[in-house]
Amino acid sequence: MKRKKLIPLLATVITLSAVGVEVSQASQASQVQAADCKKATTTTKKKKYGLDKAFVFPKSYQGKWYSSSNTTIYPLNFHRSGFDAPWNNQYINVVKLGKMKGTKKYIWQMSRSWVEHNITDIDQYLRGSKEKKRGNNWIVVSPVDQKLRTRGYAYTVKNEVLDGKKQAVLFESAPGTGKVVNQFFRTEALAQKYGREKFDNMKYSSIF
């Protein structure tokens, strides 16, 4: 008798398990579909605003850096085509700015009212470009809605002798000047030790 009662019970359990698997699979499929839809929407917006070409940072830039200001350590993390903003720790995409779809204009040629209306779509992007100043090659990141790059930041990586061996240092300057306003190191310890060091082969701003 017990065996006869057990068979329907097992059948019910198996049926419920199958239903659970189907629901789980449907949920996963729905999540994948939503992710694909979001990705497609993002790609469409990028093309619309001329933001679809990624600016690629050299491998020497990529990874985490540290800067020291008095006793405070500031991290700066570069990715392949973006970085984590030190001011809010949000990921910022860096792109090669192109002309907007269906127009012959860049974002910086649009009116201020247009920029304000579309700010939620473009505020997570910065323009990446290059310049040479004071014998160094700099990568400049600046707002996509600004023609001039003076409101951005410029970075260059050079090898310096630290603790008796050559190690990479990331220098930051105001675009167009080539004068260092900040410098970053690969470890917190190096940042604390050399954060205010002035290296002979670099020019420094008065605000350093």
Question: Could you explain the architecture of this structure?
Answer:
The chain is α+β, with helices and mostly antiparallel strands and 208 residues long. It has 2 domains: 1-48; 63-204, no CATH class. It contains 4 helices and 10 strands, in the order αββββααβββββαβ. It has a 10-stranded mixed β-sheet with strand order 1-2-3-4-5-6-7-8-9-10. A hairpin with a 5-residue loop joins strand 8 and strand 9 (179-184). The protein is elongated, with a radius of gyration of 26 Å. It starts with a helix and ends with a strand. Mean pLDDT is 82; it is low at 9-16 and 30-41.
Spans where pLDDT lies below 50 across 5 or more residues:
9-16, 30-41
- Bin the helical content: 25-40%
**Sheet with most strands:** 10 strands, mixed
Overall 3D form? elongated
Mean pLDDT value: 82
Distance between the termini: 88 Å
Briefly note the structural class of the backbone: alpha+beta
The value of Rg in angstroms is: 26 Å
List the helices and strands and how they pair.
Blueprint: H1 2-49, E1 63-69, E2 72-78, E3 82-84, E4 91-95, H2 112-117, H3 119-122, E5 125-133, E6 136-143, E7 153-162, E8 165-173, E9 179-184, H4 188-194, E10 203-204
Parallel strand pairs: 4-5, 9-10
Antiparallel strand pairs: 1-2, 2-3, 3-4, 5-6, 6-7, 7-8, 8-9
Question: Could you write a compact summary of the structure shown?
Answer:
By secondary structure, the chain is of the alpha+beta class. It has four helices and ten strands; from the N terminus they run αββββααβββββαβ. It has two domains: 48 residues; 142 residues, no CATH class.
